[in-house]
Amino acid sequence: MTDVFLVTVDSLRYDRCGFAGYRYDTTPTLDALAAEGVTFTRAMAPGPRTSESVPGIISSRLSADCGYIDEESYTALPHDTETLAKWLGEVGYETLAILSNPQLSPARNFDYGFDTFRNHRINEQGDRFTDAGDATAGGNDVLDTARALLQRLNDSPLPLNPTRVAYVVYRLRQLADWPTVDGAAVIDDLLSEVEHADTPVFAWTHLNDLHTPLHPERVRAGGLVDAGNMRQFWDDAKRVEHTPAPGYERAYDSMVRYVDTQLDRLVTRLKEQGRWDDALVIVTADHGESMHDRGYYGHHAGANQRLCYSDRDYLHHDLLHVPLIVKPPGGASGAVTEPVSLCWLHELIADAVSLPRGDFQNTSGSDPGPLTAYEPAQPVVSDSLTDRGHTVVAHSPAGTVYTNADQSTDSGWWFFPPNNGGEHSPHSVKDAPDELRAACQSAKTDPEAVPEVSAQIDAGARSRLQELGYL
Description:
Alkaline Phosphatase, subunit A, eight-stranded mixed sheet, 24 strands, globular, Alkaline_phosphatase_core_sf
């Protein structure tokens, strides 16, 4: 058996990668990996946020196929569901996960099948997802108020926006306890675990450095930005206001380069250990990040920063189109240009390491074979389940159908033909191919039919998630 490594990078846009044609040198390590492996140029995330996307990555389930904790957007895996770790563990792999996003909690069953499961953010702050919960949990009121005021005062006639100044001071004080864990520590922990493994491993790591707020020191370490802390926080305040923030966008690019440097450390060490050549290595993202594409920044679902419309959630390509590079054992270069779902990673793993395909929730309809010949037989479906309802998007080479969140009619659905210029000019859904409309209809679910998992989010967890924009 061969080692299997899965790296998911939080909030990484496809079009910010060098191998995708980006103008800045953000991803030299990923560029080299793309040249050595198979690049999926139209990989789509299962959902627009970590909570909705990672279940698809590790268990092939869309949001509507899962359960939830407290509210619909806090997706949890159903008890005893099939996962990559459970499947690979049953055929002899040692399974380990070294993570850093507080969404990925054992209380939400993201640890299913793992022999070792460690989340650095939870380990540092405590696993505050508990069975009892805290019905009076309030979260971070200071940050919530600051966000709301920044968005209301971005047109202030004052020469210096007072709320922006307060936001900068807040971030400066927060440096001692930053919301995201340094990817260097996560990679160090992963490498230590792998080095002591006695059997082939399935190792999953999730890097959260690109998730806002960006740590200024890591931004500078990326080498594309040298601005000081106050300058970066001032630019970040503009992001929170949803006003054009080119300084923040450059900081994002520099953080992409920092994350790429951590991936280089992983690749280098695996080569030194003699594991690289025969390993299956997969690098992808749980979702992208909106860069003011439609007047907003981020991907967050909180009430004061939700990217969505009155009748649907925000599932455009800036959040769903993600990088996906697969280096199979022994190497095999090429590109797959068909739309591919991250829900189908289990098929790519099975085909790459010559295992029978597992019994997972979602499949592509493709025949087993070489990765370069991977050809899905059905549209890619992504979804989001929130208090507004169930939004579904279906993608194929013929275009994209984007639904409203209710269950009643398709009269408000949109169709975006291929090469639509960033999905800015919707057509009538009557122009959409039947297979796309049928895929959406088939996936639509009544939110009341999705079961609640018996756990709740207490005050500490709410505060930590709010720092990252999830509330």
